[in-house]
Design brief:
nine-stranded antiparallel beta sheet, about 35% strand, globular
Length: about 270
């Protein structure tokens, strides 16, 4: 099993400080301070986290911010986009996201979701309200790929592994594993980037860990926080947040960080 821990020893005998987006309090552990520029924010009796201090949020300027690109509904197509790699431009068209009423573009059999964590894999979940202990997974699983990336019930939680910058969902040898893909927008100031699961690897950006926190980085977008995610709408779709965490959150969305969890079962 993988154990995530990070302790910054300031001086001999000094109190430990927690780093960015690490847990700093909650039931069963002492309250801890955060490193400079970060503050410990309590989300519920069980969990507190180091988040950017209020003073670190960007101040409004006289130049109007670009209007967020409307988030496609689950029955709409994701718009096409252009990706620039050095001097070469690759035009890609993100797929239509599968919904319960719309068939996807690829065939993939339905695989039962094991309720016990497999060795070498992890659950990924939110740890703050309003999606406390909601788990990352593709939905709906009864239709072909691509499938929307959502936070949903622990009973259908997917299991993941991060390999070579790819976030891979385990299909337990019964069908191809799925990859979390990220929208590549033409407008690099777009506030929300859609994510989805497909059988093809992600071609835009790189996933990583910051402690137990899932991050995403890419060279052509300067994100203030690589661990910032948005969970939007009644379907709780998961988006990359390209803006500041807990700052000017788009309507209908909630700021979240999402974390690996290696308990035997996905807790409720």
């Amino acid at each position: 099993m993988r154990v995530f821990s990070a302790v910054l020893l300031l001086t001999a005998g000094a109190a430990a400080q927690r780093g960015p987006y690490e847990q700093c309090g909650g039931t069963g552990r002492p309250d801890e301070s955060c490193s400079a520029g970060w503050q410990c924010t309590t989300y519920n009796p069980y969990y507190a986290q180091c988040v950017p201090a209020a003073t670190s949020a960007p101040a409004p300027t006289s130049t109007p911010a670009p209007s967020p690109t409307p988030v496609p509904s689950s029955s709409q197509l994701i718009t096409s986009s252009s990706r620039v790699i050095t001097t070469l431009t690759t035009v890609t068209t993100p797929p239509s996201i599968t919904t319960s009423t719309q068939a996807g573009s690829g065939s993939l059999p339905v695989v039962p979701t094991p309720t016990t964590l497999q060795s070498g894999w992890y659950w990924i979940r939110a740890v703050a309200t309003p999606n406390y202990r909601s788990y990352l997974q593709p939905q709906p699983t009864s239709t072909p790929v691509p499938r929307a990336a959502v936070l949903a019930n622990s009973k259908t939680a997917a299991q993941f592994q991060l390999t070579s910058g790819q976030l891979i969902q385990n299909n337990f040898g019964n069908s191809p594993n799925l990859y979390l893909n990220v929208e590549n927008p033409t407008d690099k100031t777009q506030r929300r980037l859609r994510t989805w699961f497909d059988t093809t690897p992600n071609t835009y950006g790189t996933f990583g860990w910051q402690g137990d926190t899932l991050t995403w980085t890419v060279s052509d977008i300067n994100r203030p926080n690589s661990a910032a995610w948005l969970v939007c709408g009644d379907s709780k779709e998961v988006f990359i947040n390209t803006g500041a965490f807990l700052w000017d959150t788009p309507a209908g969305c909630f700021d979240h960080t999402i974390h690996s969890y290696n308990g035997a079962q996905a807790d409720v």
